[in-house]
Amino acid sequence: MSALVWAHRFSTALAVAGLICLGVAGRAAAMEGGPDVARTVSFGGRCVNCELAGRRLVGARFVGADFAGASLAGADLRGASFFGSNFSGADLTRADVRGASMAGARFFLANLSDASLAGLEAHGVNFGGANLARANLDEAEMEGADMTHVDARGASFRNANLTGATLVGGRFDDADFKGADMVGAVLTGADLSDARNLTQRQLDLACGDPHTRLPAGLTARPCGHHPRDH
After folding, report:
1. DSSP letters spanning 110-158
2. Contact in structure between 105 and 126 (CB atoms under 8 Å)
3. pLDDT tens-digit profile of 165-214?
4. Which residue of 83, 167, 168, 220 is most buried, as measured by CB atoms within 10 A?
5. DSSP state, residue 8
6. C-alpha distances in angstroms, 87 versus 46, 48, 50, 127, 222?
7. How many angstroms separate the first and last alpha carbons of the chain?
8. Span 71-104, pLDDT tens digits
9. Order of strands, edge to edge, in the sheet holding 101-103?
10. pLDDT digit string (tens) for 40-58?
């Protein structure tokens, strides 16, 4: 084994061990000090490709962390915070991320298929090329989020805030947009032809181009034009 590979594995092992120790310490403190003692696990640094599948990380804070390619499949990340962190290419399939907060985070090409993301706050987060198939994003706050070329087939965006979000080139077959706020959303090149519960009123406040595919009878104004008044 080369020195470089050994060093990478050693640093990853230390990072994971540190995370586990922090979780144990938090639980011990909570038992000793009662319900008011904080149990938040904070984590930063670099943990590229590390294995955290199925871990319970409720309320964890990822600050300036690099988790590119990490496996968090099935992890419990309810109420977690992702600040200035990189999760590009990470595997979060079936992860429970309900009520989490994200700012300055990057989930480029991440796999979030079948993930629970209801109530997520992800203003301006980069989900470019991510797999959001069958993900639950009900009531998510995704103002200005970048969802360029996402695969969101079967995803649910019920009552989600997609104000100013970029859905360019994305696939949304069977995705549910009931009650979603799409003011200023950019739909150029997106395939929404089989999307569910999409209304003309929503589209009047968004914009597209000749390559935008919509359900029969619906149209989108060209981007660069002012929305119609209703």
Report:
1. -B-TT-B-TT-EEET-B-TT-B-TT-B-TT-B-TT-B-TT-B-TT-B-T
2. yes
3. 999 999 999 999 999 999 999 999 999 999 999 999 999 999 999 999 99
4. 167
5. H
6. 11, 9, 11, 10, 33
7. 66
8. 999 999 999 999 999 999 999 999 999 999 999 9
9. 42-43, 61-63, 81-83, 101-103, 121-123
10. 678 888 999 999 999 999 9
* Contacts of 178-182 spanning 24+ positions with Cβ under 8 A: 182/206
pTM for this entry: 0.81
21 pLDDT above the threshold of 70: no
17 contact partners, CB below 8 Å, separation of at least 6: none
How much is the CA Rg of the chain, to the nearest whole Å?
19
* Measured distance CA(172)–CA(213) in Å, rounded: 10
- Are 26 and 40 in contact by the 8 Å Cβ rule? The answer is yes
